[in-house]
Design the sequence.
């Protein structure tokens, strides 16, 4: 719970009254579920947070273990702080207690009169390191008053009668002597030039002690159990008794360890030896440091509990690579109906809008379920979620980012508990064609509420997405004969390349193009690579496409007579091509920022109604660059050529081609598009109807017909 700064519309979940106040430090708010309450009412709230509306997709914090290091949380989450923040954080550790940890001025004045300032150590370790706290007490104070002052300085709330104070006789040996009434400070030794030194000690029972044992990651009905230990009790006995209190079989004690966890500096843990004497262990911890003992817990933990927190990164050829400390998810701690959401954000997509989006998602969800794909790629998040039996993915980026996520999912799912998690989309790119088909909108504007996006993910429907393998096979080219071969009479015969060296494959999700549309896309791609800092907004990107399209229309017609220079086969049948300069092969009815080259006219008897899960591709022809502009502006459609499940294109010269907006120059050869076995499950946003209005997909803004030559690239 966090105090103050409540939203204006906040209402108390207990009394149902408004709990917002203009006074900033008024009211309480749960940082996980967002519930608010008055300062007096919040104690009546349920102690267990249910995570509110996002319960189903939340990754609960109790199912995570994080690396046992002293790394700051910003580094664990891979958040880069600004230089100003970094400078302000360069302070001493809050756990280090020094002589400065005391009010000045007043104490010094009192010491000259009737008060004395004492150095108080909480154990042998603080004496060795000379880390102490100071307290000002009357010179006539009793031992009880000195003890109470020491307890206050160390913020120890236990029963005061369980503690006593001693004076330090020798700094090197740690020799001490109990302070005795009536006026104990009269006989205290004061080293020359220094203040009197006092130990705060716990009054141990020589025969027994009481310890709390926590269940930790075990699924048990109680948080902890309280056990009595004696001189004969060893760690093995504690584990057995704890299992019995937790409702587990005590005979299986050998499958568990007792872990001593200290929260003094970060999180540090130690596995206790099964034959270690428990009473002596507790007494040694108290004698070493009372303050540290109060931040130590004992957990029973399964031996096979891996805590195998992976570290991604290495040094390769003297290059510095990214290193990430990843959390480990305990699947058995997840609620039965939980489907945690893995959020993957490309912060540089669509004018770097992802930066604000990733901050919002980290506030609404568990920060360890939100990842920046530019720091390690999508495989980092998929690796963290590998043991979760059922989860969803939200990919935030353009069509290129979505393809990257699906490609990494193909790699990771082979060894994952969830073989094919459904994937939703937040459109941050330029084209966002896949997002349009799945109703997620044409582009994230920054005005959408991230909470509403997460609600839509919960309600979204699962749909299939066909995926296709585009196989490029170059013509077998002969190499010039070597000198010995020429002497051997092999003149005129070349050495053939290995056919496997001339073959490559790309997985297609959206569309494929060859000819004029790929040529425009390639020119834009080259300009962006030359000056990436200029291409940071959708509007600028589209204006560049206009310029490139005009150049092609007026001065360059490199794709003229394409229909005469290539051959196309669909399902094994040769297709007679019309007079065209480009071919687009569609898996989606959205291309180039929402255009539909196939057209919206009724299907005739030759073609069936296309979808993204029917196992068919649509082949469309583009007559020239002006027709490409009309298609892009949604004022016309292309020429329907064919529809089928496999396509083969044969070329005899170099042609520009593009797959899902990624262009390149393809040498002469064959291009085969076949159905891939790598299907994907996607999340389709549900329709939302409002009274008196037609449904509008989330994230769609008022549409103005786009200029010609816009890219199909994400």
Sequence:
């Amino acid at each position: 719970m966090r105090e103050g700064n409540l939203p204006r519309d906040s209402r108390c979940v207990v009394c149902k009254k408004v709990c917002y106040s203009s006074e900033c430090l008024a009211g309480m708010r749960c940082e996980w579920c967002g519930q608010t309450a008055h300062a007096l009412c919040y104690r009546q709230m349920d102690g267990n947070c249910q995570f509110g509306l996002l319960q189903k997709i939340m990754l609960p914090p109790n199912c995570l273990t994080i690396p046992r290091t002293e790394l700051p949380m910003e580094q664990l989450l891979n958040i880069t702080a600004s230089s100003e923040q970094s400078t302000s954080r360069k302070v001493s550790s809050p756990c280090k207690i020094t002589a400065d940890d005391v009010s000045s001025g007043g104490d010094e004045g009192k010491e000259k009169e009737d008060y004395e300032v004492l150095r108080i150590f909480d154990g042998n370790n603080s004496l060795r390191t000379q880390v102490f706290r100071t307290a000002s007490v009357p010179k006539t104070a009793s031992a009880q008053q000195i003890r109470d002052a020491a307890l206050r300085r160390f913020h120890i709330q236990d029963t005061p009668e369980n503690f006593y104070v001693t004076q330090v006789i020798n700094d090197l040996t740690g020799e001490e002597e109990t302070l005795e009434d009536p006026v104990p400070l009269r006989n205290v030794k004061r080293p020359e030039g220094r203040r009197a030194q006092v130990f705060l000690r716990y009054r141990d029972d020589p025969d027994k002690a009481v310890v709390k044992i926590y269940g930790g990651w075990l699924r048990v009905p109680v948080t902890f159990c309280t056990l009595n230990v004696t001189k004969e009790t060893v760690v093995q006995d504690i584990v057995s008794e704890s299992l019995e209190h937790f409702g587990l079989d005590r005979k299986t004690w050998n499958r568990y360890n007792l872990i001593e966890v200290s929260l003094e500096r970060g999180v540090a843990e130690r596995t206790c030896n099964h034959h270690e004497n428990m009473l002596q262990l507790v007494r040694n911890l108290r004698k070493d440091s009372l303050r540290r003992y109060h931040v130590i817990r004992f957990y029973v933990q399964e031996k096979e509990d891996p805590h195998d927190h992976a570290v991604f990164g290495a040094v390769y050829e003297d290059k510095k690579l990214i290193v990430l400390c990843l959390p480990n998810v305990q699947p058995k701690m997840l609620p039965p109906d939980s489907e945690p959401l893995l959020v993957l954000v490309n912060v540089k997509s669509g004018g770097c809008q992802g930066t604000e989006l990733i901050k919002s998602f980290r506030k609404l969800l568990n920060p360890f379920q939100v990842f920046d794909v530019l720091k390690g790629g999508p495989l980092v998040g998929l690796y963290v979620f590998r043991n979760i039996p059922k989860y969803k993915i939200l990919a935030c980026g353009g069509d290129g980012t979505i393809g990257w996520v699906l490609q990494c999912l193909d790699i990771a799912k082979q060894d994952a508990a969830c073989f094919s998690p459904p994937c939703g989309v937040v459109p941050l790119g330029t084209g966002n064609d896949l997002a349009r088909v799945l109703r997620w909108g044409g582009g994230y504007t920054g005005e959408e509420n991230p909470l509403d996006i997460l609600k839509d993910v919960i309600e979204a429907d699962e749909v299939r997405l066909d995926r296709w393998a585009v196989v490029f096979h170059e013509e077998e080219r002969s190499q010039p004969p070597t000198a010995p071969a020429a002497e051997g009479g092999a003149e005129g015969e070349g050495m053939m390349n290995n056919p496997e060296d001339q073959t490559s494959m790309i997985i297609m999700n959206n569309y494929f193009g060859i000819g004029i549309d790929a040529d425009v896309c390639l020119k834009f791609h080259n300009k962006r690579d030359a000056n990436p800092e200029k291409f940071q907004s959708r509007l600028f990107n589209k204006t560049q496409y206009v310029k490139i399209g005009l150049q092609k229309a007026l001065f360059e017609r490199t794709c003229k007579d394409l229909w005469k220079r290539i051959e196309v086969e669909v399902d094994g049948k040769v297709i007679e091509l019309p007079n065209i300069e480009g071919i687009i092969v569609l898996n989606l009815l959205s291309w180039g920022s929402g255009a539909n080259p196939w057209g919206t006219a009724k299907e005739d008897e030759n073609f069936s109604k296309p979808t993204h899960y029917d196992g068919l591709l649509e082949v469309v022809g583009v007559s020239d660059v002006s027709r490409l502009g009309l298609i892009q502006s949604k004022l016309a459609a292309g020429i329907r050529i064919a529809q089928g499940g496999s396509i083969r294109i044969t070329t005899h010269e170099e042609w520009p081609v593009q797959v899902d907006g990624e262009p390149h120059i393809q040498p002469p050869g064959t291009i085969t598009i076949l159905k891939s076995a790598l299907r994907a499950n996607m999340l389709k946003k549900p329709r939302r109807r409002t009274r008196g209005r037609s449904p509008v997909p989330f994230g769609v803004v008022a549409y103005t017909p786009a200029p010609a030559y816009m890219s199909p690239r994400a």
About this structure: The two ends are 41 Å apart (CA to CA).
